[in-house]
Amino acid sequence: MNAPTEAAKESIRALYDEACAKAGHTLSKRGHSQVGDTDCPGTTLLAWVESGM
Description:
The chain is an all-alpha fold. It has a domain at about 30-53. Helices cover about 50% and strands about 0% of the residues. It has two helices and no strands. It has helices at about 5-25, 45-50. It is globular and about 30 Å long. The mean pLDDT is about 85. GO terms for molecular function: N-acetylmuramoyl-L-alanine amidase activity.
């Protein structure tokens, strides 16, 4: 898998920040492979999520 672009990471972060704002608190940072069995989003993107985005 190719590394995610900076634009993709910025979009993910913006969506996360908006979700936190709507929830009124900080949400857990999880890649969807941490929730169910999947090959996506790939190790590079998951490592970025786990490092705090």
